[in-house]
Amino acid sequence: MTRIDFAFGANDRLRAACQVARKRYLAGQRLVVYCANGSRLSAFDRLLWAFDDISFVPHVLASDPLAASTPVILTASPPAPPSSDNDEGPWLMNLDDDCPPGYEAFPRVLEIVSGEPDDRQAARQRWRTYQAAGHDLHGHDLAGRLA
């Protein structure tokens, strides 16, 4: 069963997501980032290039020819887990307001939630959806730890 981790209280949802992507990359792990909202996904893509002056997180869109060999994949389409060299498989980070389609194929889903009322409300609905499906849910308080 898929483990779902909610990280609540991010000062900036996309910046916190960049930090998660960097952590996964530095650990040698693959990550698929889903968001059906094209402008939000584009903003995340741009931020990955600029959020930190001294680090780089290799990433491409899922449609890119280099997607199979790139550690971080961005997609606005229903995410398909890419093949993985490790036993666990890639994690899925959801930046959309709804649960990602096909998330059950991933061993773990990461949800980053800001303190914005609309973001928190959408996260509550996703939590209920995952809970109703019987998934293992974990909440983490990011307030003061990630910017």
Automatic annotation (TrEMBL):
Protein name, as recorded: DNA polymerase III subunit chi
One of the Pfam families matching this protein, by short name: DNA_pol3_chi
GO terms, molecular function: DNA binding; DNA-directed DNA polymerase activity
GO BP term, pick one: DNA replication
SUPFAM superfamilies named among the record's database cross-references: DNA polymerase III chi subunit
Superkingdom, natural source: Bacteria
